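Many introductory courses stop at the sequence. We go one step further.
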Amino acid sequence: MTIALATDNGNHPPASWAQATAQTIIDLGNVPAQRQAAGQELQANIAYALTGYYSAVLDREKDHLALYHDHCDSPYDVSKFVKMALIEITDLARDTPWETLILSEPWQQTVYSTIGDHLASAIHVERLLYGDAHPDNSSAMAYRHRFHR
């Protein structure tokens, strides 16, 4: 499944990132009609929960970009947020038709990676936008040039 987010000259809102992630980890494409409503409810609950993590990650990134001139040189640090999100998603799945799947180790590992990748992508976009807005910041410009030559 491919999901594209579009925006007009800014990062995507946390709710958009969260919805795209929820649609990726709870793909309802092959879910039978009689389970669609339950799947949509779970997906919506997961998106709502993830919105808070995207907000926290993006707010922290903006703060760090403003405070530390070389922040673009630092690694993405999302593991704490991913772990908390996965715990919350597991709790949301209890007593749903997806509980067994979501509690399985392969699903947990895959979704840990997916959420981490999506949060890192949100940080990446924020750093690129910061570079656009701060051409005098050598760290931000070096970061931009690594990805846009």
